[in-house]
Amino acid sequence: MAFVLAKYVPAVPSSVWVLALATLATAPILPFSGMIVSFTHNLDPLYVGLGSIALLGMNVGRDINALKTLNWRTVIVATITFSASFIAAAALAQFVIHV
After folding, report:
1. pLDDT on residue 60
2. I need a labelling partner for 8 at 20 to 30 A (CA). Which of 18, 20, 36, 79 fits?
3. Do the beta carbons of residue 51 and residue 57 sit within 8 Å?
């Protein structure tokens, strides 16, 4: 369903549609949300995130020629930006978990 929506609204990637549909499907106002939550409550978040990481890797691999044409400084800045975002998210998560 997300791919169909992404086809009709190409400005929004299918991964965003998946997230939106999953959020709506598990909203407490819907009658079947309890059933979906009961099916998925034992899933490890690490395994759920692996799919996103795999999609990101495939996207980078698809544009490897564009990556080769970039200046080496751009690659370093992007790596630092991604690393800083990851560290900030991990620090925020640790703060929220332990407070």
Report:
1. 67
2. 36
3. no
Global pTM value? 0.45
Cα 2 from Cα 8, distance rounded (Å): 10
Q: CA-CA distance, 41 to 48, in Å (whole number)?
A: 12
More confident residue, 6 or 82: 82
CA quadruple 35, 23, 12, 82: dihedral sign:
negative
Sequence-distant (≥ 6) Cβ neighbours of residue 47 within 8 angstroms: none
Say how far apart CA 55 and CA 52 lie, in whole Å. Answer: 5
What does residue 76 show for φ and ψ, rounded to 5 degrees?
Answer: -65, -45
